[in-house]
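Board notes, transcribed. Complex of a protein with S-adenosyl-L-homocysteine.
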Amino acid sequence: MKFKVPVEKNKTYTVKIEDLTYQAMGVAKIDNYPIFIADSLPGEEIVTKVTKVLKNFAFGRVEKVIKESPDRVQGNDKTYTQTGIAPLQHLTYAAQLKFKHNQIKNLLVKQHLDNIEVADTVGMDKPFGYRNKAQIPVREIKGKLETGFFKRNSHTLVPIENFYIQDPIIDEVILKVRNILREYQIKPYDETNHKGIIRNIMVRRGKNTGEIMVVLITRVRKVPYLKEIADKIFAINDVVSVIQNINSEKTNALMGKEDILLNGNKNIHDTLLGQKFIISAHSFYQINPEQTEKLYKLAIDKASLTGKETVLDVYCGIGTISLSMAKKAKKVYGVEIVKEAIADAKINAFNNGIDNVEFEVGKAEDQMKKWQEEGLKPDVVVVDPPRKGLDGSVIDSTVKMNPKKVVYVSCNPATLVRDIEKFEEQGYVVNDPIVPVDQFPQTPHVESVTVLEKNIN
Ligand code: SAH
């Protein structure tokens, strides 16, 4: 029998929201056929208009809320809501923290790891204005250069002045840069025919130093009035670095390979847990400094260092975790794939007077194998991988090196749980609760710290 999709595009339906996905979409079902609806919450009854119909599911939008969830936040900025910047802003913060806790717990239960506990999510007192980095598309709308963000699931720019979750000083800098670009009539990038000049603006601000970096991402090298523009941007309060990055490809990747320093320094600084860090345009740096300090403190605490240990910091970025641990360990080794980040890491070690660290540029997969073959015997291995989690070979090398503890900092519970299973198969156990730390309020992203210990039973 042929299955008939029970909904039609552009028609409205009254539905009950049953669940919230890890991408913050409410889920309703008609004859078991799921409809994913942004800005809706479990328990709500809503009228939805179906916007897209696929074979196995559909997307809809909220036309009207008939019965509201007690966890709903009222009065959000409508223009802003069209973008995908803060897909959980309609959920109270307490419920967001619970949602993140549950995500990890549910994944563990699904994999029959029910015995592992999850602590309450460590939240922020003020869960707005936290981002220390903005990456903003620049486009032309009605003949005017605009900055803002893309409408959800599209490349249509919605002009925005208040980004809510970003450092408000960054919001101000974006507007000033926008006005300078308008003054010199710089053509915004046009994706459809790959024309125009300015594609994106990236702004980074060291929260604890106030230093600001502005990167202009352009399609071409030659920009009219570039010197005048760079000088005016440099004159904005606290801007210490103005960089042009050239991205001439037809791509969704934000930055190209080539940087040209237009004014000031190549880097900015920030401090974390009392240490000073140099940060360059291409280096990864945690985007929520207040929560990062809590996250690192937890990781350091859980490593139980006494000063005698050898520690590996795998996926070390600019060495922030390595250097925070170095004072409490005998020796720390870090590995990271981005060469600029390792250059920063080495300077950071020097600037903080730390000489018991060694950093290597390379793929974690290769370097871990190398260390293992060289006979390195770490007591603690810290891993902080990107969303795709650990490559199987990194787990194998880790286990072969036989550390007492693996401290796993994760930004994706799905790959975390997958990797915990692999470690458990190879003789490691999770004894302490996993601690979620909310690095990304108003969004569904879940960060957490897990400790795996060598099973001595
Ligand atoms: N621990 C750091 C960085 C964590 S983000 C901090 O807290 O700031 C993850 C890092 O992994 C990024 O710096 C990214 O460049 C790096 N990375 C991604 N894939 C990698 C790989 N295969 N090998 C090594 N590093 C990798």
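The first helix runs from residue 78 to 81. DSSP finds ten helices and 22 strands in the chain.
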